[in-house]
Predict the 3D structure of the following.
Amino acid sequence: MKKKDYVKLFRIMFTLSAFTFGGGYVIVSLMKNEFVDRLKWIEEDEMLNLVAIAQSSPGAVAVNGSILVGYKVGGILGAIVSIFGTILPPFFILSIISVFYNQFKENIYVSAFLKAMQPAIAAIIISVVLQLAKNIIKQKEIYFIIIMILAFVFVYFLNINIIFVILACAFLGGFYALYKQKKDIN
Amino acid sequence: MTLFALFLCFLQIGAFSFGGGLAALPLIQQQVVTINNWMSMSDFTDLIAIAEMTPGPIAVNSATFVGINLFGIKGAIVATLGCILPSIIFVSILGYLYNKYKNHYLLEGVLAGLRPAVVAMILKAGLAIFILAIFGLNFRDINIVGLIIFLFAFYFIYIKKVNPIIILLISGLVGGGIYLLFNIPI
């Protein structure tokens, strides 16, 4: 890859990150538009693999996707350029906001505005939870429904550390996949 | 309280948030609000509102926000690095495994086990914010305006599928106006 391609990679990642609202899944599909459809730097099949890996890895999907796309088109340097392009916009925006946040909060108009948004935030999160729970119930696999209920009991009522619950559920999921694989073979 | 503790805290958030979007919320809440007391529940909820209205992943946004409040720009950089380092490691490993073993039923099984756990944990974070917004910290009285905003927001986001950012802004402006107009203590 030439020097000007790295600049282009940085510019695309920066622009996508600075102007994309609505989370990682949106930004990953915009990356596909840019790198597969427009620039033709990545094959469609390859991109689908990268998206699958980005979604399977922990961390922000946008960051994961940008590392993978950057590495694919420009090796290690491409990955570094991509990461910077992706994290600099939120870094700058939030730095500016945090510096003013405490002063902002003392302003009665701003604090009324923020206070009134809190119930709406609760509504956004609970809507997401209902949507996700519906998808799990729709699979009609009682095993995963039980995992969901138990996970809630453990984190909410028993106050078990989230990290332990995540590890346990990863293990239970892997165990179930192995069990089903064995059963299919026999 | 050291820079290294901040780094470790966001390293855990980066390493254990599977599933994108709001999946990082419960971990950020646990690490930043419950364990380390770096932020109040109310500031945490404001942070989510800010993160929803600005581009960029919520984990990166909160790393910048928390880091800069504790140690200035140095803290923001350290926290952000902690938060993206697991991404770099995990996408490299998973990318390698993905190419080597095209048959990845075990990975899919692990992710299937994590999905219900993530739902349960986001619900925990959502309920904490709901309680804060509707009952406040002392749990004594019900905030009627907050409850109305919640129901309004829930109806338009979950049933009518309106863009959450628009509902967030309307809630802030109208609700904030009501708080100020009727002199309701915030």
Observations:
- The radius of gyration of chain A is 21 Å.
